[in-house]
Fold each of these.
Amino acid sequence: MTDTSPTHPVLIAGGGIGGMALALTLHQIGVPCIVFESVAELQPLGVGINLQPNAVRELYDLGLGAEALDTIGIQAREWALVGRNGNDVYAEPRGLLAGYRWPQYSVHRGQLQMLLYRTVLERLGPSAVRLGHRVSGYRQHDRGVTAQVQTREGQTLDVSGRLLVAADGLHSAVRAQMHPQQPPIQWGGAIMWRGTAPGVPIRSGASFVGLGSARHRVVLYPISRPDPASGLATINWIAEITVDNRGGWTQGDWNRRVALEEFAHHFDGWNYGWLDVPALLRGAKEIFEYPMIDRDPVSTWVDARVALLGDAAHVMYPTGSNGASQAIVDARVLGAALLAHGVGPAALRAYDDKLCDAISALVLRNRGAGPFGLLGLVDERCGGVFDDIEQVIPAAEREAFMARYKAAAGLAIETLNAAPPTIAPGARMPG
């Protein structure tokens, strides 16, 4: 069956954070689009994520400012690493307190997706998103591209558009067609258990804390304000260990619900007075297990009129808390390229030239523990036990380590603050 649109839209595969951010960007610059999402009903699934200032800037420029983002999360104030014995390794202010012109947000991933989805429906209309439709492949021709779309009712549709942008995630069918020889999913041996639980926010009250070692740690941060009556906020937590990965991932599912008893013993005794890790883990109603995975970078994200975006382009370890942020930035850079080069292959090439190599390097940097590499240095130098971190890693070395990571991730404060908007206010496609 053929399904064509008289407006020759840009076709977007995937209605996650990257796909919805791209739809809003295209609407902002006057380019029609259709989003195809495989699930029949979008729901606020997932746990906490962080939106870095470079992505928050882009959301603000889309008209989603603090008034909207404050409804789904909180502005982060601190990022801290703490050794296994409870002593600080490194801490720094984040967002506005660090000097950025934009805050950093800790939010619920599903609530962010739903905020973007509702905004797409309000601005573009309900026909702009087709739920229960999965893009399974594509064909190209002189004036555009045809996406093969599978419906949940078993139909196969041919949908024509000017471009196809695949924001269809880790298991992207479009990426598989573009790069049929791509290596399999890469698992480095880290296993994550994730959940949310009520708790009293620690330190600044809006702190991201990584506690433990590079191979055995807990990460936690609040994603809601404390309840006025109880003083408890929703705390997002990630418990993680690294094991021998030579046998490959044997659990089957990439995301499965598990019982606390399957992993809680790894964190017995992690009680520091100011933080009781076993109690926090016990407070979760649901716990999910994930392998920490990524894919080896590919040489290009573009095939003529087809481009990859978000996890389809660069799924990465979450050690830098920048997967969702980069998907939003991708969407904005692509929008700027369309404004500069028109809705065609030249714009996709410009997008690829600007991001592919740099973000591929970031994928590999995150695979090497990202900013948590500081905890690895502590392990190497003192076995993780210390009284004075200055005797282990001097402050200048710690600052230099973090500065290198921020530069690679596009988070250098002065650079980001001085950069002009990715898309100038009011910019629209001619005609």
Amino acid sequence: MALDQIHKTLAAVICILCLMGCVQAVPPDLLVALEAIDQDLIALRAPEAAPEEYGQFVRQWVSLKARVQLDDDLITWPWESSDLENELRRLYIMGERTVSQLHERHTSQHRTAQAKVDRLEERLHTIISKVESIDGRILLGEKAVQTGLLVKQARSFFEQKDFQRAMQAAEKADSAFKAQVLLLSQELGRYADESRIAYWQSLAKQTIDWSRIHQSTAIVVSKADRELTLYKSGRKMLSYPVRLGFNGMLEKRFQGDGATPEGRYRVTDKRGQGQTQFYRALDLDYPNAEDRRRFDLAKKSGKIGPAKGIGGLIEIHGADNELLAQTLGCIMLDNPNMAVLYEGVSVGTPVTIVGALTKENAVALALSELVQRRDEI
């Protein structure tokens, strides 16, 4: 009985000691911390942002979790060293370091992407307003739409915190912006060409001088500023804003291109209500000999296809016909202004249409600003 009692006493003491000092092989809070590290790495897009570090972490974490499950019931004394626990703690330190690095990178990318996307949206607004101001929307066609979609895509990726893809979309949009500015500069750069402007100025001067010498009326139209000016005896009588063809700023090349011609013309006919689909109209002698010469040269050089025609029926007219509110190449005035102009001129009145009359014209200024904004991102 004494021996049994001793055994019972020893068992009780061992149990008490276990309750007081024995511990699990792996602290539960360490496992919880590692699970949190794993979730943080996923939230920070570690699989894409740091694939090598994340792959190493995952491989070790899966292996160590399997060992933890095998040793789940193992109890150790506090003074006993646990290789499993040590490996888990080293993994925790490595994971925590990777989280810290990714967080810093994430913060930096957030700032960079936000700045790029904000500048893109500002530039999109600028280019849209400038393109509209110089009637360049048709010239750019789908390019402008595609650029707008890229900017929206960049913003969407940014809102999803996918900063890498946001910046990639931003770079594509930036390239598209530059391509648009280049196209506009190529097609409309003549409005900033001093020699071309000097030529246009000489045409306008000749027309004004003719008006003074012959004590008659004459019209000068500046496409860049969308302005029609009526002279009488060499003096400016009035100026009206005008609308041009849907590609009005371009040089007229062939029928249907939507461009408004440039050159020296004359009013060949005056058509009132009932004689025209518009409110009133002044017919011009387009194409004249110079227009035909340019057209023939362009055809011979292959710049204009063989099926294209030179066109005709260029007018200065009012805007009664809503279906033709966007002219195909003519010069359109509001009806009250057209009424005054119609009464003020006669058949034979010279009409000179030029691109611009000053270096500081609207198209040149818009192009200059677009070029300056081109490299901002």
